[in-house]
Design brief:
With about 70 residues, this protein is mainly alpha-helical. About 60% of the residues lie in helices and about 0% in strands. Helix 2 packs across helix 3. The relative contact order is 0.20. The model has no long low-confidence stretch (mean pLDDT about 90).
């Protein structure tokens, strides 16, 4: 079952596992650093286009982030 809290946790996990600073990731996604901080603190969710870019930049399956898959592909 898709759960918003699990999606938020997977977004945070993706950001933290990216190895990029919030500032660098913000530049890559064309958002503010404070937006990244809000995603990490689970205050807001990224827009769909930003979520898509996050998955591309971090090489993570959108199916995993959106809970359609249980495990991230290696």
């Amino acid at each position: 079952m898709v759960d918003i809290k699990t999606i938020q946790n997977r977004i945070v996990e993706t950001i933290k596992n990216s190895g990029m600073s919030q500032t660098k990731l913000a530049r890559e996604l064309n958002v503010s650093q404070s937006a990244i901080a809000h995603y990490v603190s689970k205050d807001i969710l990224p827009s769909l286009d930003t979520l898509a870019k996050l998955c591309i930049v971090c090489d993570v399956s959108p199916e995993y982030v959106l809970c359609f898959e249980e495990r991230e592909k290696q």
